[in-house]
Amino acid sequence: MAQIPLATKGNYFHVYDFRVKPGMAAKFVEAFEAHDYRDDNPFHSSPAQVKDGVVAQDVDDPDHLYLIGEWSDIAAHAALRNQQMTSGEKPAFMEMIVPGTFKPVYAKIVMSTPQHILDGAAKAKAHA
Asked: Cα–Cα distance between 15 and 69 in angstroms, integer?
């Protein structure tokens, strides 16, 4: 199988580096999935979302998590986030987050391995 770049140059990552309250990681993931996978999630219907986000857990600290997603327009992500935060709807998972730690950092993707380079590496592996 050919490799594909993690992200596309010129797009943006949103990175949430946050903590959940002690011992709440499993319940957080369950509540986040229930909220995120619902049919009316506005983030998933945005044309600016390039790749859906992932939640990753620090292997040395289970209460330390990351949410990372790829967007073509960070203003679109920020507008949706602000809309959700001011709508009065407070997702259940928010109660499990240490206050003040769930704010994204936006990072512009300035390098992404071109597909032809990855394809060449895959061919070299196949012949090795």
From this structure: 7
